[in-house]
Amino acid sequence: MNAPALSYQPSNGTKAPALAGAPALPSLKKDNSTRTGRSKAVFVAEENIRLYIARFGEPQIGLLTVTTPSPCLRAFEFQRMWHSFQTHAVKEWFPTGMWVRERQPRSGNWHAHAVVNVGWDIKTAFPFAQVETGFYANVDARLRELWKALRERGSAYGFGRIELLPLKHSGPACARYLTKYLGKAFSTEKSEGEEKCRLFGVWGGVRFVHSHFSFVSSRILRRKRAWLAERLGIVDSDEFKQRYGAHWWHFIGPALREVILPEDHYKVEVNGELVWDTLGALAYSEDITRFSGSDEARMLQSHFYVFYALGKLLFGRHATAQANDFAAGMLGYRRNAPELSAPAPQLDLNFREQRLSLDLLASLPNSEAARPPLRAP
Q1: Torsion, CA 52, CA 58, CA 62, CA 64, rounded to 10
Q2: 250-260: per-residue pLDDT in tens?
Q3: Residue 181's pLDDT band (boundaries 50, 70, 90)?
Q4: Which of 250, 225, 218 minimizes the C-alpha distance to 374?
Q5: How far apart are CA 36 and CA 34, in angstroms?
Q6: Hey, what domains does the chain have and what are their CATH numbers?
């Protein structure tokens, strides 16, 4: 049965749209809560290009396209040609820039697009309609001179058609256009042995987003990890590895992603007040609708599954009873107090002796069959 949809009322009095509900117990076989490394790489490229255009201004940005006259089907071959041309020629005219490599859809040849700061306004008076018909007399003389130099130098490095044009559309639209094929190219368009060939790069030291950044949406996941660290008395992320091994996240992560925190953990601070934002409201809606019962019971269930997964990691995948009792103990209830097995003393976990009310106790799983599947070691 699906849980009812949730809606949120922002503190400013405006009515927020209702958020759709999700299945009460979704499968954990597929993780939809985190972005893949490929999506992250595409996002990094798009944001860097967008911010580069915004920094220098759309009128001064040129879109440089470089192709090869003969078949160039290997990424390594094109990478060598492009790197040489970029290092010894392109940088002479454009001290900074960002490039994206991709295959031509029909021929399969590699080619490159780059956004560069030309240094003057090449867009305002550019005769787009005339250039499309092959009439170039009204193009700025400086730009035509630059075209000629690019063709001559490009030919010497083995390239064919080279063009440099102003942006026809907005900077964000250009960034999306240049990176929309990267997601596919990262995984399917490289030959065997070419996995390390880069498809996006910068020169001139102008970079705005680095590959080791965290998505804004990971705010909720960071808070969930902070909640678990506080419950376990852990100071930093390295201590997780020291206590539970280098692969601790593989076993605990699926349950931790779905844990329900108090509402304030999903909110953001605005003018000294915690308020709902779209990200926080949607994350809370997804978390709360994975379980059934009252809000308090749902939260308790989600906490139980986290500690149950941790118990499996501590005692072994077949130690179901010990994991059950360990999770119950972490929630303050000793289901079978004389038989409760605690983790190793060096873990220094804090067991609370408070008993749960009967209505919350009823929500605790009593058998392996009643528990949603978790990844076990």
Answers
A1: 60
A2: 889 889 988 99
A3: low
A4: 250
A5: 7
A6: 37-203 (3.40.1310), 218-370 (no CATH)
